[in-house]
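the two lines:
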Amino acid sequence: MGDLHFSRVAFIGIGLIGSSLAHVLRRDQSAQTIVACARTQATLDTARELGICDETTLDPAVAAKGADLVVIAAPHSAYAALGRAIAPSLEKGAILTDVGSVKGAAVRDLGPIVPPGVHFIPGHPVAGTEHSGPAAGFAEMFQGRWCILTPLPGTDEAALAKLTRLWESAGMKVETMSHEHHDVVLAITSHLPHLIAYTIVGTATDVEETLKAEIIKFSASGFRDFTRIAASDPVMWRDVFLSNREAVLDMLQRFNEDLTALQRAIRWGEGDKLEALFTRTRAIRRSIIEAKQA
Amino acid sequence: MGDLHFSRVAFIGIGLIGSSLAHVLRRDQSAQTIVACARTQATLDTARELGICDETTLDPAVAAKGADLVVIAAPHSAYAALGRAIAPSLEKGAILTDVGSVKGAAVRDLGPIVPPGVHFIPGHPVAGTEHSGPAAGFAEMFQGRWCILTPLPGTDEAALAKLTRLWESAGMKVETMSHEHHDVVLAITSHLPHLIAYTIVGTATDVEETLKAEIIKFSASGFRDFTRIAASDPVMWRDVFLSNREAVLDMLQRFNEDLTALQRAIRWGEGDKLEALFTRTRAIRRSIIEAKQA
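prediction for all of em together
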């Protein structure tokens, strides 16, 4: 990674993803100065204690000033205001990227504020854990996972190559696609699964206290696997669903139809339909194992 | 486990659960003779190669003859016929148990055939993997997990104690409850989660081939966790849903209501409702970690 160097990297938001990338930059000495910006002083104090930044500030405009790489790593609902705040600070030649889960929303909220000469390249490192905050981050989190970049037409090739090298230095495989396509694929692979997990954990525990204790006790029989996903950051995920509303509602509609069909098959004792579906889904698992994503 | 001894243990069905228990009996030398009965000779050959049985037979009546412990470890749809087949072979003082996921169905299908003097105690070791067949079994599978026994009123205390010691020898924590209560608790913790996982894996992969390849590629973003559950044995799970129909449909109805409410909140941009649920479900995860079930 000797050829990858930034003079000043500004993290606007320094939670799970931001702090993990800061750990990578530190490990590889890829940034001369790392600046962390957050909404609270407590978060900044934690980031400083972790040794992942040289400067801290509560002001996004101060953080972005003079940076050659600005990384928005905040919930989607903050993007528009953050964009307005940093726009006057963005310098010609700088790369502006983000790590959000909905790329259409990133383009909508940040695209209009980007000054000429600034390279705006939305990004999504598809990695994470159910924990949040700067203390939860670690450099190895990205290892072997995919990072999706959604450059707009006409994006500077050199800037795209440099951002690609950054994520590769974190151990990621980088792929580019349109932001529209990204949002459809992730609605299926990530947003719908999270929505369903949140729902089922809510349904299963919305019972009297005695039963709730038993459900926790016997959770290893299937329920437990959903609780890990449903422990993900509440604000981040609230914003994901609201930001990718159309694609999520479309997938949810299809899920509902399929669930209704299954419900009907159970009610009418149509075992062959159940077995046919379960046989098909078992084969999908094999595909994932073969693709080395298990 | 020196005091736990059976002279002849018959496994009617020797798949994932049956073979794992046979491994335990072998390891602890708790059974003088282990007999395996299956529907196909191929399964029996595998069981014999694994060294987990001394005798094999395709005839359940032959397997059960002279046994002091008979373990039904077959899909629920086979129970009634197996019960009729083994009834004449069951000897006074023998323990008849099963390992199925729906205890009401076990009572309904096996209860009527039990001859006087035979101790029928339905059981459910809440353990497993997404794999199936005798080669998938291993003695450690039960370690630290719960086994639920659902003895009927008037069950012989000595027989119950002996069956309890058997599962404890496999490393399980044993709890008793009524079969009705078991089926409600498991509908929530196990059956509904499996049904939802099967559905979402079906929905997400019922797309054109190009998109399907991308979904498998990016499955680590949430979808992957569902595919493991949805790879569970198709026949066994078909039977679970049909055998615990009422409780499953009841939970499914509640899940549907909650999902519809969430869908509406997304459509109308009610972020506070989403955040409130996601904050509640995150706390549930903490309860599971505290209960050491994570």
